[in-house]
Amino acid sequence: ELLARWETLFRALPERLVAFAGAVRQILQETTARGGRPELKLFAALRDTAVSLEQHVAKLDEVGVLLAANVAPGSGISVPTLPDFHRVAWVSHIFLLPAPQLAAQTARVETEVRQFVAQDRDAVVACLQASHDACRCAAESVLQSYWNQLRIHAQVHYVEERDMDGVIDELMRRYVTPDPACTPLPCAADPFSA
User: How far apart are CA 80 and CA 102, in angstroms?
Assistant: First the structure.
């Protein structure tokens, strides 16, 4: 369940990354076109997308920690480690850079983010598939163990096919007809009755 929740959150990540890359691209275009500092509103938009991305990655991390705490070590069930997508702190850092460094930083980060969305995401999906396979193997192992226990129990407590009338007669004798050996003890006189 936790693995499925992480995967659902991960499937929504590329949309946020594309929005972040688009905001980075606007900063880069403004820096190169104007040869100076972009408008403040572009940095504000970039920061908003960075905050959204950071919150989403925090949810992924939270589910990943829960999953790691609930699986046995060496089970093969894990979530992949995601790269650091230069979020809010990075936006604050680039705001102070001169135009040439700003252009270089934004070009590099945009390329990294778009490369992850286009190519590196496949490695994460492959790792998730391996974890799902490990989950299936673990579930089959538990079910096989339980099935073996049920089989042993059934063999020990094997019920023979018998005549229904004979079974009913036996049950009647055992539970309905009083056994003379099991007669109730006589009650002692009540010491408080006078």
Answer: 31
